[in-house]
Amino acid sequence: MHTVRTEVRVEGVVQGVGFRPFVYALATGLGLTGLVGNDLDGVFAEVEGPEAAVAEFLGRLELQAPPLARIERVTTRALRPVRSASFVIVASESQTGLRRTLISADTATCADCLRELADPADRRHGYPFINCTNCGPRFTIVRDVPYDRPLTTMAPFTMCERCAAEYHDPADRRFHAQPTCCPACGPRLRLQNQPGLKNQLGLDHHENPIQAAAELLRRGRVLAVKGLGGYHLAADAACEQAVAALRQRKHREDKPFAVMAADLAAAAELAEVDEAVAALLTSPARPIVLLPRRPGTTVAQATAPGNRQLGVMLPYTPLHHLLLAAVARPIVLTSGNVSDEPIVYRDDEARATLKGIADAFLTHDRAIHVRTDDSVARSFRGRPMLLRRSRGYVPEPLAVATGFPRPVLACGAELKNTFCLARGRHAFVSQHIGDLENAETLRSFTEGIEHFRRLFDIDPQVVAHDLHPEYLSTKYALELDLPAEGVQHHHAHIASCLADNGETGPVIGVAFDGTGYGTDGTIWGGEFLTAGLAAFERGGHLAPVPMPGGAAAIRQPWRMAAAYVADPEVARRHQDHWPAVIAMAAKGINSPLTSSAGRLFDAAAAILGVRDAINYEGQAAVELEQLAETLTPAETRPYPAAVEAGVPFTIRGSDLLHAVIEDRTDGVPAPVIAARFHHGVAALIEAGCLLMRERYDLGTVALSGGVFQNLLLLSATVARLEARGFRVLLHSRVPCNDGGISLGQALVVASREAASRS
Ligand code: ZN
Ligand code: ZN
Ligand code: FE
């Protein structure tokens, strides 16, 4: 038979995921000879043997790849056969030139490791740091590339003989698993910081830190637990007193805590879990999934006060698995921080910051290199919808077909900030950085950019930023010695939605959010755009209203109600303050104009008495959604809103509020009013899109902006648009909130460049 030799190059996430042993096994199984190795581009191989066997090899390469591999491209080239006698794994080639290999995200403990963890005969039985090529920490422990143990935070741990043997055995599941370790050589868990711990517990916490930690939780204590991307704070989810204490010590008034349940069955006892949700909960990324809460569960009221949703996640590290099994009930697991500061991840800062909150620390000696929060998702129509894309997803790049002519750095917005570095076909969106409002978050931002630049070998030639001159991300961008390009906030939202769907537009972009700087210097946020990636036009928007007191109007929704309806009789509270605020708005004193949809929701919430002042961003709208009753179609009488047909057209949001007031006066129950308001907003979006279609002849609508995190609004809007024959694009992999802005900015700048070149 005809003998051939073929060179194969594989790009993508192919290092540190068991790809070479897989190639080795596949090739030798087919009786092929040759070699396989790693280089900066990924994995390369040369396979030699009968033509049919080589073809078989190539066919199976993508189909049977290891679970964590993400193959982006396979290229082949014919070589002259050299009659090699065997198949070998060769040492890495020189590591100079442009790095193209990708680093895997942190991945939940795999089934094989869980089996070993539970097996008393296994040498890693009960070992909280068990991992293998198919699972474990990655992004959070990587200091630099190439992805090799000395460049991870596992460097201080020297492998014992048995671990080293596995590490070097191509037939072993731990072949080249960089974080591999065992009780003899790896990190150690310890429970500390509570004086007299042993006497209190009656068991030796040095001997068995997990049992001791579980015992503390069961006794209603608050525990700091070192995780993958930072410290969590834990409490027994069924213990009202413990959760309330945690809330009080953390200075977090209302924002919901997430709960970790031992497994799918335990999660399903707390919340409604359908098939799509189950897939999301058990996915290797293990995000927190926001779910409809079941009534009558044991979850403490203080976990998610007044909320019909519950954030649920499953264990993703061996430590979580062991702890949950020992506690034997769900625990609250929330970021280790004080109020709005970023999650702590260094041991010394954890000790300092959390000592007033946690009664004890369950910690270990493997350092966390990159602070990475848990990801947060929802499921919409059976599809995941990421609200925070972080641990488990980052740093996997998003492939962008149109590509980036020059490497780009995009700095994102202010709240829920992420940045994005892009090159070639890859956009690397950072982990959730947080609100760029304090020094610590800003440090995460600047250090994160440096880290990504090094890791992915991206030397940006242009920097993209928001138009808001006061955003710290804008200031950072303008201080760099690079050509800087401003991208309008809502254009970036729509561009990110296009990228999320692999589309380029043009589309009708509906960008509804809280705040975004407009090209006219006013604050936008209820926008109908015609948008492609390179350019946009403002086709219509919500009629602007003053925001009396500026930022104060964001914190105090009642001010927006006063600005919108200008009638103190409507006030639920603060009635004596209304006249002054109404006058302030009328005179335009410290009252910037806004077309924000978020502020319209705020006003409605205040008028309904839901909330006058907020403790976290978007709280009034969240609570309004919670309040809303599910209506039968007959009850769904959406409030009308007048469209004033200029160019751009404007839609009078105040009409909705007057309808709210009318219903309130008529004694319509608040949950019905809240629902009708949502359907009213959906109806005004429909009206705006119909007008856009008439004027611009576009049939596709992209929905973006934080307001669409509201599932009631989203489902009502999508239903209406689809009934009108629109094709609707939604977010899935990238948040619709400002976490998606950096990706949109990067795409807009790249597309402008591509457009100006052609
Ligand atoms: Zn594993
Ligand atoms: Zn070992
Ligand atoms: Fe926004």
Describe this structure in words.
Helices cover 33% and strands 22% of the residues. β20 and β21 form a beta hairpin. α16 crosses α18 (597-607), α18 packs across α19 (619-627) and α20 (653-665) runs antiparallel to α21 (670-696). The chain is globular and about 85 Å long. It has 758 residues and is of the alpha/beta class. The chain folds into four domains: 3-103, Alpha-Beta Plaits, CATH 3.30.70; 189-376, Alpha-Beta Complex (DHBP synthase); 397-488 and 746-757, Nucleotidyltransferase, domain 5 (2-Layer Sandwich); 510-729, Nucleotidyltransferase, domain 5. The two termini are 50 Å apart. Strands 6-13-7-8-12-9-11-10-14-15 form a ten-stranded mixed β-sheet, sandwiched between helices. A seven-stranded mixed β-sheet has the order 25-26-22-21-20-27-28, with helices on both faces. It is built from 23 helices and 28 strands. The chain binds zinc ion (ZN) (2 copies) and fe (iii) ion. One zinc ion binds at residues 159-160, 162-163, 181-182, 184-185.
Topology:
Blueprint: E1 3-13, H1 19-29, E2 33-39, E3 42-50, H2 51-63, E4 70-79, E5 87-89, H3 111-118, H4 161-167, E6 189-192, H5 197-201, H6 209-218, E7 223-226, E8 231-236, H7 240-250, E9 258-260, H8 264-270, H9 275-281, E10 288-292, E11 309-313, H10 318-327, E12 331-335, H11 347-354, E13 360-364, E14 376-380, E15 383-388, E16 398-410, E17 420-429, H12 439-455, E18 462-466, H13 472-479, E19 484-487, H14 489-500, E20 507-517, E21 523-531, E22 536-542, E23 545-546, H15 551-555, H16 557-565, H17 578-587, E24 593-594, H18 597-607, H19 619-627, E25 643-644, E26 649-651, H20 653-665, H21 670-696, E27 700-704, H22 711-723, E28 727-729, H23 741-757
Parallel strand pairs: 2-5, 7-13, 9-11, 10-14, 16-18, 18-19, 20-27, 22-26, 27-28
Antiparallel strand pairs: 1-3, 1-4, 2-3, 6-13, 7-8, 8-12, 9-12, 10-11, 14-15, 16-17, 20-21, 21-22, 23-24, 25-26
Bound molecules: zinc ion (ZN) (2 copies) and fe (iii) ion.
